[in-house]
Amino acid sequence: MKDLIDIIKTRRTIRNYKTEKVDRDILEKLMEAAKHAPTGMNNQNRRFTIIENAEIIKKFEREIESALNREDYSLFNTPVFLIISVPRDSENGLADTAVAIQNLYLAATYYGLGCCWINQLKHCYDTREIRELLTLVNIPEDEVVYGAMTIGYPKDLPESKARIEKHYYID
Amino acid sequence: MKDLIDIIKTRRTIRNYKTEKVDRDILEKLMEAAKHAPTGMNNQNRRFTIIENAEIIKKFEREIESALNREDYSLFNTPVFLIISVPRDSENGLADTAVAIQNLYLAATYYGLGCCWINQLKHCYDTREIRELLTLVNIPEDEVVYGAMTIGYPKDLPESKARIEKHYYID
């Protein structure tokens, strides 16, 4: 079994998935990991919507592309598209979403899966077409989306990027 | 050795520290974990400032208290106060800070340490008194602070809070 630091260091962003589905028992483990990430003031008001329906995933792909005026926008044929939504008035909604995503990245790595943080919905969650899709998957109008993830088995593992950030001691 | 899911589930927010210092070799491991958290567009522009000087930590405590008009504001006699700063114009600075903090939480748990996410600096990093302290620890004026952490050995481990968030499948 890999130790924590190995898992942290072998985590990658994956943009190329096998067609293989992800078993529900593994998705349940990922959800357990996500929910154990902290929330500001222990509010625990994130909603996790796990979309496995390929047709609906394709609709999100096309409407994000259109909303952001992109070309060839892709959700990488992911078998799972996870949307994290939080109350519109949530003070720490973005931070709460981010820490859950980091736990998901690590748990996915642990189970041999790969993920990609999808950052585009936060720029278009209230356009009419995207909101219709959010309603289709039962996300209420008073919730907004700061982060989403594709999750699946990686076709290949990209090389690790060199780490260049610095730290400084003040003693 | 604990497995990842155990570490994720035993992570706690710690607000009560022993006076024991944290060895530099463990702090180096924590920094390695923090830097392996992703950044938007792989920008890698976080700066980690690790303050071990008790007098400077106390100054931050008193100036945060004053800036936010609080009473009895406490950094819990932490032996280590870590500030994460990012460029002022960073598009994903808050998310980049949050994922690094989550890795730090988990790595700290792994090494028997405890942490608390300090959220107050983001409300006052540009007040004159706080900016003077940031300058004192060599954080440039063009960087801002969305998150900080206290890190030390926990005096006791609080009980885990029950998890109440929900997830839903769309298949």
Ranges of chain A with pLDDT <50 over ≥5 residues? none
Write out the strand line-up for the largest beta sheet of chain A, numbering strands in chain order. Answer: 1-2-4-3
Radius of gyration of chain A: 17 Å
Counting copies of identical and different chains, the oligomeric state is homodimer
Order of helices and strands of chain A: HHEHEHEHEE
CATH level-4 homologous superfamily of chain A: NADH Oxidase
Query: In CATH, what is the class of chain A?
Result: Alpha Beta
| Number of E-state strands of chain A | 5
Query: In whole angstroms, how far apart are the ends of chain A?
Result: 37 Å
Number of domains of chain A: 1
Q: Give the largest chain-chain interface (CB within 8 Å).
A: A-B, 62 and 62 residues
Helix fraction bin of chain A: 25-40%
By helix and strand content of chain A, what is the structural category?
alpha+beta
